[in-house]
Amino acid sequence: MTSTTTGRPVEPGDDEENGHPEADPGPAADAPPGRAGDPFDRDDLPTPRGATRALLVSLLRPMRGRVVVAALLLLIQQAAVQAGPLLVAYAIDSGVPAFRDEDYGPLIAVALGYALCSAGAGAMQYAFIRASARVNQDVLLDLRGRIFRHAQALSVDFHERYTSGRLISRSTTDVESLRELLSEGLQELIGVVLSFVTISLTLLWLDVATGAAAVLSFVPLYLLVRLYRRRAAVIFASRSTAIAGVIVKFAETMNGIRPVRAFRREAVNDEVFRGLNEEHRRTNGDAMLENARYVVGSRLVANTAVAGIVLWGAYRVASGSLALGVLAAVVLYLRRLYDPIDRLSMFLNSYQSAAASLEKIAGLLAQTPTVPDALEPRELPPLTGGHPGREVVFDAVRFAYRTGGEVLPRFDLTVPAGQTVAVVGSTGAGKSTLAKLLARFYDPTEGRVLLDGVDLRDLATPELRRGVVMVTQEAFLFSGTVAENIAIGSPDATRAEIEQAAKAIGAHDFIAGLPDGYDTDVRKRGGRISAGQRQLVAFARALLADPAVLILDEATSSLDIPGERAVQRAMDTVLHGRTAVVIAHRLSTVEIADRVLVMEHGRIVEDGAPAELIGGPGRFAGLHRAWRESLA
Fold first, then answer.
1. CA-CA distances (angstroms) from residue 401 to 20, 26, 354, 583?
2. DSSP designation for 418
3. Are 54 and 369 in contact (CB under 8 A)?
């Protein structure tokens, strides 16, 4: 440990927000930092083959009935819309001649039929929008919930390597891309497909030659669409990554606004953000240019085809081989056939964007926890000995971080039930790693961590979290009242129990002095109260949870001297009879321990009672002397 500084020692695997290396006990643990091919070095995680399609199917399967109903509504709507040109052809070829003979019935029938088709198309369109909107929103509701639940279920090492900004991008920007596809793109696609099928069949029925010419004109359009899809897929994947980069940098800067201001990083951050923003602008521009190429090309093909077919049809009308009403219907149908081609680009844009986003989401959801739940969970044995503590054993434990070599090359330790052990040592000695293994934020690379003889990997997560509680240096408070934050570990606690825990830890007086007392909203991350007060709330939270094992990882380093002394007085009561592991930075914290461990390079180099080590010639005695001199 560092002896006199007030800063926090940096350990491998510490908080990502502080820029420390991350931990991963997986098979690639011995890989060098920043090795090529590490999926966490990229915005997108590797997606297993077929995972994207499987995700989409799983989202739509529960709603397949409503999807079928929506498709039928759109089919009826298209039928009503496509009946219009047929009515026009009938009016020209039959209604007008009948009108000359003073027979008004055919034209009246055409007018009524056209009005009914228009009204029916509008009604079906309204019904379709309502039905599809419900499907869209239910799909997005399900997807957001999956992302949130899965992100919470993933292990701590995942979150230390995959930034919160990327998770925000997955659950907002990428989900929004899927929303655009479902709410607008699919309707365009289905409309184009139905228009193509119904109009092609109608044209073939009206005149085989004209219908065949119209269908053949779609061959160059199909090739154009294929080219656009292939080029746009790359562009939209790059755009999604660029958007995520902007979000990540923005979130990182705002979360670290204090060090940004303290170290005058504004200009540097602005330069980095400008580059990311420029990349976002460039990829957006590439997407628009590619879309413009497609629109121009498709219009050129469509207009050429329409002009050719109309000229040919006019020649046939003049020669008497084609009725004028049929030509009029053909012209109307051709416009309806080719007009959606422009709108198809909207679908293709939505599709490419959503495909890239859905692939990233599927990659995230394909991640599995490196600290999995027990398949056949065991229960802890009943407490014995008249105290609430449990025995902790590190049995031949080895642990390696992803970014370097082993932190714990071979570690054996037994902490008897009810004993308070303080762990000290220099930066990188493995102190915080020891605490995180005991809290099962990671699993050992080899060996076992036992709680009353039960491997932590065999315990159900709720059983483990009831038995082991960790208080870290950064006392994180959630938005809500002080009472709600204290009761997080024991949500059924009464107000009297909450206040009793606060009194035991010495937090009651300052809480009572807040504007609304225990009902005061601490706001975002507890920003309404000081760092030391947040730490006291965290201690009260741990005490109320009543764990058998309490881990304090630099937990008093945010407190001033009076606050630290108040907490230490309360700790005598809090830790009495309970098993406790105290990762100590300030040597004053060691005074409450029954036993002190001095660690170097992942090994215990000194082990004994505080008084015994202080009086000896070892490393702890030297650290203690330096600490005493710093107080003089």
1. 12, 9, 35, 19
2. T
3. no
Say whether pTM exceeds 0.70: no
In eight-state DSSP terms, residue 4 is S
Distance CA 484, CA 532 (A): 18
Q: What angle do CA 379, 385, 388 make, to 5 degrees?
A: 60
List residues bridging with 424 in a β-sheet.
598
Contacts of 168 (CB under 8 A, 6+ apart): 247, 251
Mean residue pLDDT across the chain: 80
CA angle (441 as vertex; 258, 376 as ends), nearest 5: 155
Q: What is the pLDDT of residue 101?
A: 77
Give the count of alpha carbons within 13 A of 246, CB side only: 16
Q: Which of 189, 187, 193 has the alpha carbon at shortest distance from 82?
A: 193
Burial class (CB in 10 A: 0-12, 13-18, 19+), 183: middle
Q: Which residues pair with 448 in a beta bridge?
A: 395
Q: How far apart are CA 7 and CA 62, in angstroms?
A: 54
Q: Are 411 and 600 in contact (CB under 8 A)?
A: no
Taking the C-alpha atoms of residue 194 and residue 200, their distance in angstroms, rounded to an integer, is 10
Please compute the mean of the pLDDT values over residues 59-71 and round it to a whole number. Answer: 86
3-state class (DSSP) for residue 126: helix
Distance in angstroms (rounded) separating the CA atoms of residues 507 and 539: 9
